[in-house]
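Researcher: Structure for this, please.
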Amino acid sequence: MKKWLPLIALGTAQFVMVLDQSVMNVSISQLVRDFDTTVTTIQAVITLYCLVMAMLMLTGGKIGDIIGRRRAFTVGLIIYACGSALTAVAPSVAVLALGWSILEGIGAALVLPALAALIAGNFEGSARKVAYAVIGGVAGAGIAIGPILGGWATTELSWRVVFVGEVVLVLFILAMTHLIGDAKTGETPPKLDVVGSVLVATGLGAVVLGTLQSSTWGWIRPKDSPIEVFGFSLTIFVITAGGVLLWAFVTWQHRRERHGKDPLVHMGLLGIVPLRSGLIGLFSQNLILMGVFFVIPLYLQLVIGLDALETGIKMLPVSITMFIASAVGSRLSGRFPVRGIVRAGLMTTVVAIVALLATVKPDLGDAGFAVSMAVLGVGMGLIVSQLGNVVQSSVDASGRGEAGGLQYTGQQLGSSLGVALIGAIVLAGLTGAFVNQVESDTRIADEVSAQVSVAAQPGIDFVDSSQIEAAAAQADIDERTGAAIVDDYETAQLQALKAGLLAAALLALISLAFTGGLPHESPARDGDPADHEPAGSPVGV
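Model: Predicted structure, token format:
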């Protein structure tokens, strides 16, 4: 039992790190009311949390290599606790973003790469497989249990209580850090690549920012773009600038290696096929899951009218099946090809999302929705049970800090893009569908239809239909016409949500094309290959 005590501390840390994302998702409507803001603003705050982690994860992994993984883990927890405490008392959206999105994001960027390396350093062979499966299951549980905790707290007390609880949990973890053996690093601590850190952070930030704002600015044709460049929306230029910065980052890393200097990450790691495929899989999994977890609360709360607690209960099946499937998946890896298990998980995910599409109706079909969410948990659980071990077992002990940084960069970039991209599709789809519905509705006079179309042109927010009714009354639109507009808006809501889910299903199908590089057998099935230099790994990694 004693040998598993470090896993309790590390698993608790993993749980805390992912809890916020799902807590905030079910509290969207309450946050909008508490801070007198919009769904789009809260979407931006959620995205920023994941983005800060993605921007700084490689840097966080390198800092762990420099100061030691356990020390980085500890410092990150302290910063995270400070962010949670600030979030708990946030008087405004700006302070909420500072505490939750920025401080917690910085803390998590130190904790998570170190956590991945500490698991690999504290467990070997079959125990490592079990440890990664447990961590994966705990992460899934955090994502899915979060709605229950957040829903209960939001409905009965306040969403702020969750962050107070996080501070308590972090103090518990800090009290147990002495039980965690420090993971091995290289004999000579590397130096931090500051230029590389800035390039990768700004590059990733620009890509996600452009994606996030696309529903407002427009993708190509400008809508409410602050600047029009040659008649085009700012979106495409921001995303392109991000791509150029990331290209510059890769070029800079190669240059530092040629000159014998420590890069932020050895780009040769991406030449290890299993590692690269594992990273793509983790990116895809988080993009799909967080995209779906952004859509579902909007449907349950703003269409069906459930409160935060009821929303959390409706999402509970994901928690149960994801945890079970993750545990079962770790055992299956000894009998079935890893590649086959991940592919089965992706196909199961597609089936689940398609089933969810059928349940998005004005009236919630409880049984069909619950089954669909349960199947989604099975698919996600099978995927997560394999990929963490694949990534960490693809490198030797000295490369696990960098591998952990890449691993969580992929995960958090997927999460931030999932919320940004699927959210943008939903919001853009809502505007387009609403305008089309109004223009084709014979109950609405042409002059009123034109008035609505002009008002909706910059984009409309995802709100409760009662707010549309109030806006129509404020615009002196007669009650009968106002009722027709509300009907059209409710129809547009369902169409937009289905567009978001359909996009998630297509992304899952596309992900199948990138699974060819995953290994057939579990990397830790025979002995502990990760303790030896893997074939194709760069020297010194």
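Researcher: Any notable elements?
Model: The first helix runs from residue 5 to 26. Confidence is low (pLDDT under 50) at residues 524-541.
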